[in-house]
Amino acid sequence: MKKSAVILSGGKNSRMNKKTKAFLKLQDKSFLELELDAIKIFDEIIISCNQRELYKDLGYKLVEDEIKDIGPLGGIYTSLKETKYEEVLFIPSDMPFLDEEFIKKIYESKINKDALIVRVNGNIEPLCSVYKKSSIEKIEKMIKEKNYKLKDLINNLRVEYLDLKETKKTRNINTLEEYENLLRK
Question: Which of 10, 32, 38, 56 fits 22 for a cystine, CB–CB 3.0-4.6 Å?
Fold first, then answer.
């Protein structure tokens, strides 16, 4: 697929006792491996990370935030500047249930605006969505204003929504307790 996909894995993992979520295991694979399987159809795959040395042996292009400590907006901004295609799918490293079928539903949608925001049962998933390079200028403006909120990014962009009903696929694991509960099931 002649499109770009980015896995956002640059968080501080503070609610995970500093364990890097991308490397948590589920069914003998890391979250990162599961997500790479889901996006293997993409021509360009990038991992946006804050510690290159953890990812260097994986064979993917690695991107570190140009502007540090501004949250996911920093990863989106830098990655959009680094990708070779206009439309870029972003997924967070803590959604291990994403699969190729779900990803295809997102990426086969025609995008006529700055972003295609996934909405699952009415809840937006700004980190599991498609942004175009046309978003860069608006993100730069937000950064200059020290506004790093994804909700504000969506309000500043021309967006269209993709309504989906699959809740488990976009479930993210944010805390050690959530991860331990997942393993018990």
Answer: 32
CA distance 163 to 31: 24
| Torsion angle defined by CA atoms of residues 94, 95, 96 and 99, in that order, rounded to the nearest 10 degrees | -150
Kindly tell me the burial class for residue 129, based on how many C-beta atoms sit within 10 Å of its own C-beta (0-12, 13-18, 19 or more): buried
Q: How many residues does the chain have?
A: 185
- The number of folded domains in the chain is 1
According to DSSP, residue 17 is labeled: T
Q: What is the pLDDT of residues 104-152, one digit of tens each?
A: 999 888 899 999 999 998 899 999 999 999 999 999 999 999 999 999 9
CA 153/CA 169 separation, integer angstroms: 24
- The enclosing domain of 27 has a CATH number of 3.90.550.10
Closest CA to 75 of 142, 3, 176, 6: 6
SS3 content of the chain, % helix, strand, coil (to 5): 40, 25, 35
**Domain assignment of residue 128, given as a range:** 4-184
pLDDT in tens, 14-68: 667 767 889 999 989 999 999 999 999 999 999 999 888 899 999 999 999 999 9
